[in-house]
UniProtKB/TrEMBL annotation:
Compartments where found: Cytoplasm
Cytoplasm recorded as keyword: yes
Keyword Protease applies: yes
Phylogenetic placement of the source organism: Eukaryota, Metazoa, Chordata, Craniata, Vertebrata
GO terms classed as biological process: proteolysis
Job of this protein: Removes 5-oxoproline from various penultimate amino acid residues except L-proline.
Entry keyword set: Cytoplasm, Hydrolase, Protease, Thiol protease
Family named by the database record: Belongs to the peptidase C15 family.
Pfam family, one: Peptidase_C15
Gene3D superfamilies: Peptidase C15, pyroglutamyl peptidase I-like
Species: Labrus bergylta
Protein name, UniProt field: Pyroglutamyl-peptidase 1
Length: 215
């Protein structure tokens, strides 16, 4: 019998004006729904702190050895469920929940400016928009230079690109927690299908492919 695929999905704790963080609410809804019998789903709430991300993410990747890690974050500007294609290394000036920001303003001193997911988010977006869920999905290449972007870049580096980031709107603007849970379920299932269809996703990311997209 084939071993189960392990997938980690994370949401963030409350911060700023987000007294309830819809990302963690949505991830908890996803946990109730599950990803089917062939997938071992592990969920985790991430602190809105740069230093906590630096210690938590390496342990998630090494302890669980997941096929895919999907991070979910809230964006007050989002009106769609937004799939982020890449994470950025520089520009982290905004202070976190501990009033800390990196002195260097970057994730990794000598890291590339931008790391792309091995997943083609345009392809994932097209597929989920055609599922008739009644939820609109879009693609972005700017995760915002705060904890979302910082987490995504760190995870893309640790997982050789086998990571994804999804921005969700605040609850009720326009989607309910259940709708967001179903949206996450549909997206993650499509991502896993795409990884199965294209074996290169299972291997270390092709660096030549990645560099041609760098800004």
């Amino acid at each position: 019998m084939a071993s189960k695929k392990k997938v980690i999905v994370t949401g963030f704790e409350p911060f700023g004006e987000h007294a309830v963080n819809s990302s963690w609410v949505a991830v908890q809804e996803l946990e109730k729904l599950g990803l089917g019998g062939a997938v071992d789903l592990h969920v985790c709430e991430v602190p809105v702190e740069y230093q906590a991300v630096q210690s938590l993410l390496p342990s998630l990747w090494s302890k669980h050895q997941p096929q895919l890690v999907v991070h979910v974050g809230v964006s007050g500007l989002a009106t769609t469920v937004t799939l982020e294609q890449c994470g950025h290394n520089k520009g982290y000036k905004r202070r976190d929940n501990c009033c800390f920001s990196p002195t260097s303003q970057c994730c990794m001193e000598d890291g590339p400016d931008c790391i792309h997911s091995v997943l083609d988010m345009e392809a994932v977006c097209k597929r989920v928009n055609n599922t008739g869920l009644g939820i609109t999905f879009s693609v972005s290449k700017d995760a915002g230079r705060y904890l979302c972007d910082y987490t995504y870049y760190t995870s893309l580096h640790l997982g050789q690109g086998r990571s994804a980031f999804i921005h969700v709107p605040p609850l009720g603007k326009p989607y309910s927690s259940q709708e967001l849970g179903r949206a996450l379920q549909a997206v993650v299932q499509e991502m896993l299908k795409l990884m199965e269809e294209d074996p290169k996703h299972e291997e270390v990311c092709n660096h030549a492919h990645r560099q041609q997209h760098d800004h």
